[in-house]
Design goal:
single chain; alpha+beta; six-stranded mixed beta sheet; 36% helix
Length: 502
């Protein structure tokens, strides 16, 4: 019977898990132990649309409260400078599901490899806007494909305050020894000589994976055959006159790629690269040459992969202690929210007595989600033809697609059709839509056998649709700065039910 949970780690992973447990199983005691000697990573973070749903739907946090405290910026997608042609935008709005003409032809056939303004959200982002004005007044028509850009420090500060208010006991201390008995954690000894025990331990210790990896020795499943990058140089600068964009940027560099995350007060950039192809000093020089405003930087080494199981004995890992993939699709907070959902629901539905079969099913599901993210990211690397450097040639020749192989082969033979989706993409997938795969394959200029499937009328209809999207964005679009000013206004009221809220 789980009556007492101890979370090791005071970053976003530990606190988000604490909030989920307090919300769904309030009868269980939740303590969080953070290290006074370890700081948080503290970089800007992007999210997917899962995060607002988790925060405001699953946890029930009022959006107005979150905006006041965390001051997030708005994100509708990711702009990829990722092909020999123009940059393209991947949006959360399921753009490839649109159809054209009497035949209801999937729009991917009509647009070809030109993804410019292929959805209203994409046209808005291209125009430097975020939402259209509402038809009933001068306020934004906020849509459900909304995600966030967040400063990690502001997020963690709010999480700590909220956790305290929700009854989480927050303690400070450094673990110097983990005592293990019969494949389970028996206790944690702290630097001050005290000892802590719990029925269930949540390992949110980051890359150290102190409980699951170090103490219990759970094997690590390496993703190095698909994802070759292993380091990042991270920096940024205070915003001056730059336009506040509603997307994350992913720019191709010689030995990897560079993110740009937008925040009202700051621009965060980071160069993710492979140390097999470039030294830290050379990577930083390339990074600074492309970003002359960048201030102090730091190097962050990482290893991509996951633990074989995320729930072992009386230890459940969340965040980087469970697994890590680079932030090419901003999946870190999504993985944390998924894990927090699964554990809190498992404990609630089992009345605090999770069975071996429930633990086993949870492990399989979480492992599958990590692997699906790896597969999706692998496609990004395998088909990027922006630069002809040793790193990118190596990616095109050697990246293993694993579970994405069937999806790519289906696209090559049939084009962007959804006819076999139920076979290609099981409902449990983290990226449950072919939409994302099709967007990237088309955006990167990958040819398929049905290039000429759209007829002249369908192409004309599509061209008119794209032109309409651009006119609407120019005439009715609101900038991110304009929209944020309204969302922070006390007179603004979020639509009930927008994120699953009441």
């Amino acid at each position: 019977m789980v009556k007492d949970i101890l979370i090791l780690g005071g970053g976003s992973a530990g606190f988000l898990m604490a909030l989920a447990l307090r919300r769904k199983v309030p009868s269980i005691r939740v303590r969080l132990l953070r290290s006074p000697s370890l700081g948080i990573i503290g970089v800007g973070e992007g999210s997917t649309a899962d995060l607002p749903s988790f925060l405001h739907g699953f946890l029930g946090v009022p959006p107005a409260e979150f905006f006041r405290a965390v001051n997030p910026s708005l994100k509708l997608g990711i702009r990829f400078d990722w092909s020999p042609g123009e940059p393209y935008i991947y949006t959360f709005a399921e753009a490839m599901r649109q159809s054209v003409g009497e035949r209801q032809l999937p729009c991917g056939f009509a647009c070809g490899h030109d993804l410019g303004a292929h959805h209203p959200a994409v046209a808005l982002m291209e125009a430097g806007k975020v939402f259209h004005r509402h038809p009933e007044g001068p306020w934004p028509d906020v849509r459900r494909y909304l995600a966030y850009h967040i400063e990690n420090r502001e997020l963690v500060e709010w999480l700590e305050t909220t956790a305290t208010a929700w009854g989480v006991e927050i303690l400070d201390g450094d673990v110097v020894q983990t005592r293990v008995a019969d494949g389970r954690v028996a206790s944690l000894r702290l630097a001050d000589g005290s000892e802590m025990r719990a029925d269930l331990y949540v390992d949110a210790s980051g890359f150290r994976s102190e409980l699951l990896g170090e103490a219990l020795g759970e094997p690590f499943v390496d993703y190095a055959d698909s994802l070759f990058c292993d380091r990042a140089v991270v920096g940024g600068w205070d915003r001056t006159d730059e336009v506040l964009q509603a997307y994350t940027r992913a720019d191709t560099y010689r030995h990897g790629w560079c993110w740009q995350i937008e925040h009202p007060g700051r621009i965060n950039r980071g160069y993710v690269y492979s140390s097999r192809f470039v030294s830290d000093a050379e990577a930083e020089a390339e990074f600074r040459a492309a970003n002359p405003k960048v201030g102090p930087t730091r190097i962050v080494p990482f290893r991509t992969g996951r633990r074989q199981r995320q729930w072992v004995g009386n230890v459940f890992a969340v965040g980087n202690s469970a697994g890590f993939v680079e932030p090419l699709e901003a999946t870190a907070l999504m993985c944390i929210s998924h894990a927090a959902r699964f554990l809190s629901i498992a404990l609630a539905d089992s009345d605090g007595e999770p069975s071996p079969t429930l633990v086993e099913s949870t492990n399989r599901l979480l492992a599958r989600k990590w692997d699906e993210i790896r597969d999706f990211l692998a496609v990004h690397y395998r088909f990027n033809r922006k630069l002809d450097t040793p790193f990118w040639r190596h990616c095109r020749e050697h990246v293993a697609l694993h579970g994405a192989e069937r999806i790519v082969n289906h696209f090559l033979e049939n084009g962007p059709t959804f006819v076999a989706e139920i076979d290609l993409i099981p409902p449990s997938k983290a990226f449950s839509l072919l939409d994302g795969y099709f967007t990237h394959l088309l955006g990167m200029g990958v040819a398929h056998a049905r290039q000429s499937r759209a007829n002249e009328q369908e192409r004309r209809i599509w061209a008119e649709y794209v032109a309409h999207n651009r006119r609407q964005a120019d005439e009715q679009g609101m900038t991110t700065a304009e929209t944020l000013a309204i969302l922070h206004d006390p007179r603004w009221s979020w639509t009930p039910g927008f994120f699953g809220t009441s």
